[in-house]
């Protein structure tokens, strides 16, 4: 490090581990990134993505100036911010006047900072008067939100990263931590090396790098998780490996659940899951005899048409064994995105409101409306991600504002999404990287500041809030997301509430956070003791952190009290349901999608760093060797993969880590890299009825060799 190098502590912008980074820069350019040894999430470690953040500053990919087009089919031209936002305000005002508040929608992102989320929430709910504000977190963790709320009465993941190191038995379900949460996985690997007696169970249809660490790998049929968890509880009951005192003192609904799981005999469950009875018995034995038992899960459970049932069935195991609220024990969902938790806190799903409130609850709406000093908040249900793009396609949404996300690559059933974006009368895209597939559809393209240039808060998977700090100025005329949103909102106010004091006189992220935090007062996540200054003084903290607190809260429910009406956690007795799309003769394989170690989402940022293609250069379809042989395919043969929604041509390779009948492809490539509409042209829009999270992990497909002319 040269003498002129400045160092700014901040947070990695990729995954929900939320690692602290030290940005090395000269005030103009970022030269390097190292792990922050003082940050409790990573203690100095970084993965391949975090440690190459400084290589992702390619200005040719960045948006530098607003661009506007005044008609479909015309080219966009550079414009001034004033022109851009006045035009947007006029179009939104006209649309609202003609078609009402639910004719517009906002689709935002788990990449946004807490203050950005808050500004969007106030814009949609208080000014526009719609609940049509959803986030790409709908695709990521909305099933976990429903799971926690059904089981605990509150969206409160109870554990800390330290519990992962201190647990005696760790169950990892539907998560390839080694790729998706690499620093956390490294902490686990190191802990297991120090304490070889620690047992690790991995539940995953693939033998992933994570499964390589496991003492027991249950390579189950995709989508059979509820049956598995009920079957494990059946054995725990049979063997007496439950905590009757905890159940009696702190839970409700156990008798109903007992009646449900009575039918899930080991033989039946082994058949549904494609496992052996002995594997189920061994798994139950490890859980039932462990002094402490912790479970981690991610997209494999959440991205399912039974996502909320997967969550509650796993939480049932903890409640039945009393494994919660203690060191090394508890159910612990991992968030994919860096600030998915901040989205939950600020109410950035269409069914939520700030402070872990529900949009459907009249008292909650009144509380927020009073705080914002507006008459009332909208009571009509907001559209969730899949519903939202269907509504755009059907012409019910006339103006759509997209921020910091790329639905033209990431939402399932891409054919519909592209049709919707092409047909929508007015599309605004607020984005740092103007290279994404979605930007193509923008009538108005607004350049946003990005990581290293903007300031605000993020909350990681363990409820820890960190300060994201700017190191260098944003390029061109790019502006922070909260500032774009508030500037637009003030211009829209001139149409919707002329002459009234503005609701959006924000002065900066610290002031926005201070406004937001009082909406959490007395609630499960109470943030009122925190501020930007407090975090700067005492470091990242875990909520709740009420006024007067001196440190955060590492573990919840230690007293066995839950935030339900009767103070008891609830057993949820939901039956196993088979996945929505079944294999059939025309589509005989099940396609799973997931992350690579070195890429992030649609690759808008990681795709700019050549080094990150060293691990995997291109998307390849993995098939079990038997399925390759049956089709007389050799490695790297080109194949056409077809689902009911579309098809793609990719190279294929034999991969013995899969079960026969399964196919796997990484999720990151969109149509700027591939011919066709990218990987998600194949995936299906079926979703969980409660969480509305789509079943991205499971689509029926056919694979056939492509004969080159
Ligand atoms: Fe960033 Fe996640 Fe890697 Fe940490 S583990 S450096 S937060 S991508």
From TrEMBL:
Any keyword Metal-binding?
yes
Instruction: Please give the cofactor(s) recorded in the UniProt entry for this protein.
Output: [4Fe-4S] cluster; Mo-bis(molybdopterin guanine dinucleotide)
Q: Which residues form the 4Fe-4S Mo/W bis-MGD-type domain?
A: 5-61
Q: Does the keyword Iron apply?
A: yes
**Which keywords, in A-to-Z order, does the entry hold?**
4Fe-4S, Iron, Iron-sulfur, Metal-binding, Molybdenum, Nitrate assimilation, Oxidoreductase
Spell out the family assignment given in the record's similarity comment: Belongs to the prokaryotic molybdopterin-containing oxidoreductase family. NasA/NapA/NarB subfamily.
Record protein name field: Molybdopterin-dependent oxidoreductase
Q: What is the lineage of its organism?
A: Bacteria, Pseudomonadati, Pseudomonadota, Gammaproteobacteria, Pseudomonadales
Shown segment, full-protein numbering: 1 to 709 of 902
């Amino acid at each position: 490090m040269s003498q002129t190098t400045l160092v700014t502590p901040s947070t990695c912008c990729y995954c929900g581990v939320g690692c602290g980074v030290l940005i090395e820069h000269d005030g103009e350019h970022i030269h390097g990134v190292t792990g922050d040894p003082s940050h409790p999430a990573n203690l100095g470690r970084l993965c391949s993505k975090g440690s190459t953040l400084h290589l992702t500053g390619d200005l040719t990919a960045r948006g530098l100036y607003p661009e506007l087009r005044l008609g479909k089919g015309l080219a966009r031209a550079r414009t001034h911010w004033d022109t851009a936002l006045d035009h947007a305000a006029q179009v939104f005002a006209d649309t609202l006047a003609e078609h009402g508040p639910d004719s517009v929608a906002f689709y935002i992102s788990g990449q946004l900072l807490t203050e950005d989320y808050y500004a969007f929430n106030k814009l949609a709910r208080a000014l526009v008067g719609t609940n049509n504000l959803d986030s790409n977190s709908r695709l990521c963790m909305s099933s976990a939100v429903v799971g926690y709320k059904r089981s605990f009465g509150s969206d409160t993941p109870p554990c800390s990263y330290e519990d992962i190191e201190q647990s005696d038995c760790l169950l990892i379900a539907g998560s390839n931590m080694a790729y998706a949460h690499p620093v956390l996985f490294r902490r686990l690997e190191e802990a297991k090396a120090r304490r070889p007696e620690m047992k690790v169970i991995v539940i995953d249809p693939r033998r992933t790098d994570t499964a390589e660490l496991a003492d027991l790998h249950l390579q189950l049929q995709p989508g059979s998780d509820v049956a598995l968890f009920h079957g494990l509880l059946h054995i725990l009951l049979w063997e007496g490996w439950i905590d009757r005192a905890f159940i009696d003192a702190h839970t409700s609904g156990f008798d109903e659940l007992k009646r449900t799981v009575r039918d899930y005999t080991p033989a039946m469950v082994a058949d549904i899951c494609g496992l052996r009875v002995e594997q189920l018995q061994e798994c139950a034995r490890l859980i039932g005899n462990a002094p402490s038992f912790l479970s981690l899960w991610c997209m494999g459970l959440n991205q399912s048409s039974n996502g909320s049932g997967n969550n509650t069935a796993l939480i049932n195991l903890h409640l039945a064994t009393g494994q919660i609220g203690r060191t090394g024990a508890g159910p612990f969902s991992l968030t994919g995105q860096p600030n998915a938790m901040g989205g939950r806190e600020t109410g950035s799903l269409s069914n939520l409101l700030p402070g872990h409130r529900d949009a459907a609850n009249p008292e909650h709406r009144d509380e927020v409306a009073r705080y914002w000093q507006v008459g009332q908040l909208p009571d009509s249900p907001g559209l969730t991600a899949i519903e939202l793009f269907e509504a755009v396609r059907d012409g019910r949404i006339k103006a759509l504002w997209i921020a910091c996300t790329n639905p033209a690559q990431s939402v399932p059933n891409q054919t519909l999404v592209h049709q919707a974006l092409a047909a929508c009368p007015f599309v605004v895209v607020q984005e740092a990287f103007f290279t994404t597939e979605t930007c193509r559809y923008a009538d108005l393209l607004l350049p946003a500041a990005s990581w290293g240039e903007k300031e605000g808060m993020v909350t990681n998977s363990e409820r820890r809030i960190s300060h994201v700090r700017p190191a260098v100025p944003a390029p061109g005329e790019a502006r922070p997301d909260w500032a774009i949103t508030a500037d637009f909102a003030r211009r829209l106010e001139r149409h919707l509430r002329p002459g009234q004091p503005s609701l959006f006189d924000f002065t900066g992220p610290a002031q926005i956070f201070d406004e937001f935090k009082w909406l959490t007062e007395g609630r499960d996540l109470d943030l009122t003791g925190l501020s930007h200054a407090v975090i700067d003084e005492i470091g990242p903290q875990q909520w709740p952190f009420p006024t007067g607190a001196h440190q955060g809260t590492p573990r919840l429910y230690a007293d066995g009290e839950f935030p339900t009406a009767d103070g008891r956690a609830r057993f949820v007795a939901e039956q196993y349901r088979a996945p929505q799309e079944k294999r059939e003769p025309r589509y005989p394989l099940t396609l799973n999608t997931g992350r690579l170690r070195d890429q992030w989402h649609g690759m808008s940022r990681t795709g700019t760093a050549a080094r990150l293609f060293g691990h995997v250069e291109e998307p390849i379809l993995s098939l079990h060797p038997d399925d390759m042989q049956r089709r007389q395919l050799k490695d790297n043969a080109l194949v056409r993969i077809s689902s009911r929604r579309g098809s793609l041509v990719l190279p294929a390779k034999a991969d013995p880590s899969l079960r026969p009948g399964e196919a796997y492809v990484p999720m990151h490539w969109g149509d700027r890299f591939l011919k066709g509409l990218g990987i998600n042209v194949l995936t299906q829009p079926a979703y969980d009825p409660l969480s509305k999270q789509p079943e991205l992990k499971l689509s029926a497909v056919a694979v056939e060799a492509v004969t080159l002319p």
